[in-house]
Design goal:
- The complex is a heterodimer of chains A (189) and B (593).
- Chain A has eight helices and four strands, in the order H-H-H-H-E-H-H-E-E-E-H-H.
- Helices cover 48% and strands 10% of the residues of chain A.
- Chain A has two domains: 66 residues; 96 residues, Glutaredoxin (3-Layer(aba) Sandwich), CATH 3.40.30.10.
- With 189 residues, chain A is an alpha+beta fold.
- Chain B folds into five domains: 104 residues, Glutaredoxin (3-Layer(aba) Sandwich), CATH 3.40.30; 211 residues, Rossmann fold (3-Layer(aba) Sandwich); 84 residues, Ubiquitin-like (UB roll) (Roll); 89 residues, de novo design (two linked rop proteins); 58 residues, Alpha-Beta Plaits (2-Layer Sandwich), CATH 3.30.70.
- Chain B is built from 23 helices and 18 strands.
- The chains are: A alpha+beta (189), B alpha/beta (593).
- At the A-B interface, helix 2, helix 4, helix 5, helix 6 and strand 4 of A face helix 1, strand 10, strand 14, helix 17 and helix 23 of B.
- The complex binds flavin mononucleotide (FMN) and FE2/S2 (inorganic) cluster.
- FE2/S2 (inorganic) cluster binds next to helix 5 of chain A.
Amino acid sequence: MSNQTLEATVDPELVNKWIEEIGSGVPAAVPLLQAIQGEYGYLPRDAMDLIIANSDINASQLFGVATFYAQFRMRPVGRHLVKVCHGTACHVRGADRLNTSLNHILNITDEEEDTASNGSYTVEDVACVGCCSIAPALVIDDDIIGNLSGADAQRVLKKHAKGCKEDLPGDTSKKKKAAQENSNEEARS
Amino acid sequence: MSDSKLEIIVGEGTCGRASGSTEIMGLFKKNAPDATIRTVGCVGMCHAEVMVEVIDGDGNSHMYGNVDKKGVTKILKFHRGEDEKPEDMLLSATDDPELEGGQYLTKQTRLALRNVGTIDPTDMEQYKARGGYSAIEKIIQTGMTPEDVIEQVKISGIRGRGGAGFPTATKWTFARGAEGDKKYLICNGDEGDPGAFMDRSLLEGDPHNILEGMLIAAYAIGASGGYAYIRAEYPLAVKNFDMAIQDATAAGYLGDNILGSNFCFDLKIKQGAGAFVCGEETALIASVEGERGMPRIRPPFPAIKGLFGKPTIINNVETLSNLPWIIDNGGAAYQAIGTEDSRGTKVFALAGTIKRGGLVEIPMGMTLHEMLYDIGGGSSTDKPLKAVQLGGPSGGCVPASLFDTKIEYASINATGAIMGSGGIVVMDEKSCMVDLAKFFLDFTQIESCGKCTFCRIGTLRMKEILTKICDGEGTMEDIDTLEELAEGVKQASLCGLGQTAPNPVLTTLKYFREEYEAHVKEQRCPAGVCKGLISHTIINEGCNGCSICERYCPVDCITGEKKKGETWVIDQDVCINCGMCVEVCNSDCILVE
Ligand SMILES: Cc1cc2nc3c(=O)[nH]c(=O)nc-3n(C[C@H](O)[C@H](O)[C@H](O)COP(=O)(O)O)c2cc1C
Ligand code: FES
């Protein structure tokens, strides 16, 4: 599955409702973008165009804000989002390894890519999530999980994937496990 | 004993939840429906989450840590008199002062944190039961003038806890005197230091205290409008603070004619959107106004011309959290704590290779050593501590040889580091100081808003040089250039971000120059961290051929025959030195050098 299919279909009524509720002036730019990203996981072009058309915020202001803040994402996002903390505490306790192992099990090999080919998960780096004493930590959808090794990160993702019936493109452990059990059996007999 | 006499308190801050507190809470509710079960914010002992406190029928409190599903049963059985004391989980108990966890708390002086981990942050009545809102009541009911309030804060000697350490009363006096039909007070909850969580815990664990602090500050400067700027990464803090605003409004502490006076204060939350520079006050103002969060040239200072052009005071969350205590107990009581240079207490977020990491509040003047060893319990690994990093990207490293340094503004500045906002990352010998400097430069270079050239280009050049050194391609001249650049960026940058960005480099160069030189002269990373300078090899004598490393290797560069330790090899041409194999190896037989 390509990322194309992850493009969200924007509901104009919803966007207009936000403009009405949150405001249509420049101070509303960040909260409006936050509302859009909260709904669609990223900032779909169509939603941005609606804001530009129906509020007092012009294109350069809106895109200026959207590209300035790290929170905003212009590319479509997988069905689930994994945020790997790269704050200081997580960095010194091996956060890089969480990315390595997650990318491995999701079979994300291209450095430019952050979403698994089946659209299941997107892996993003973020600054501190505020749980530094249980570093390294990651956030899956809304749950923070800490004290992880690289191997733990894979376990956590597998459990999550099982819960929401997602496939992990890089998960070959089932096959290998079967093979392992076979060889154990042979050894015993 | 019947459960009805038991009070069970579960820590449900972000750390608690991250460790599974919600599930534990559910189990207590299910298995002990007769007990009184409450939830509180972060208790501070984040290393031991999930934390559960049980107060028995005799009023004795027992604090349990690392409570899992089985632990729930054990704890209940013990308190019902059916089983032994679960010693392994028991951290402290009021009837057993000898326990280690007790020291964790007794060495602290908790003013800012006085309610955090004690009350249910979503219940305003619990805040009030512990003296909450008495400070604003005192101000209004006894007719304290704004000048009286400023005077008490001046006597307290409190300095801003957001990093710069500017005396709070002085700043307020400017804004108080400024002309303006409308003034603003902003609570800075952006907590940009990646490796710190004091403000998160305060906002989550005792939101009414911050809100009351804002009321006091607003009253003092004459502000009628307020914003709480909170990081987007802190959803629970936003939620709890939002609830506090609603409850306080309903109770007449917020809005028009507060407590029947003519003091009006309207408060809104603004969520940050992930830009470090937005913690800087002028950038924060730009951000609230809806623009890109770029710092503005000062003067004019925000106290004179700030948000929407009006006089504005920005105070850090922790600064605000001390104000109700100061008004309740008087400025002199606060002044009595700490040192001449630094009055009162400071909250720190202890993280890294420390045994008892978490949130601690200490009287100023305690040494780093006392905080790290007496409270923190020392190294969590088998390696001794090497250094601490204070103040995040704007701060610096203090080596173990200087752990006798007192925690106060002047003494810490003398080391080249800064007090900062309170993030402390503790490191053992397995941390590479050059890598750490590179980590921070990576961060500041990305976060530099790009407005001034020195910061934009200077941090980029510094980052390039550090990358070269970490890759083993640096020269001795590079180290000198790095030092020159660092001084230049420090002098010529417009805002605090650029002015302080070189600190991590300068302090590591000052105390750990030999590590830089090892990278350059010997092509060696003494800590075994820098990927370009290390290699992984299998010690075949120790290997039992279990093949687990093969399974976890992301680049399939490990091969061998099952159960034949002598056959296993790592293909050096393919290996990316990610360290997965070291982590999963059961027999410790992968050599990193
Ligand atoms: C780059 C940069 C980032 C900052 N980040 C924060 C922050 O996250 N939180 C904070 O309270 N102050 C931060 N500050 C300091 C603020 O500019 C300001 O001094 C502080 O909020 C004032 O409050 P205080 O006087 O109560 O400390 C930052 C400063 C700079 C230069
Ligand atoms: S550094 Fe990762 S949670 Fe703070």
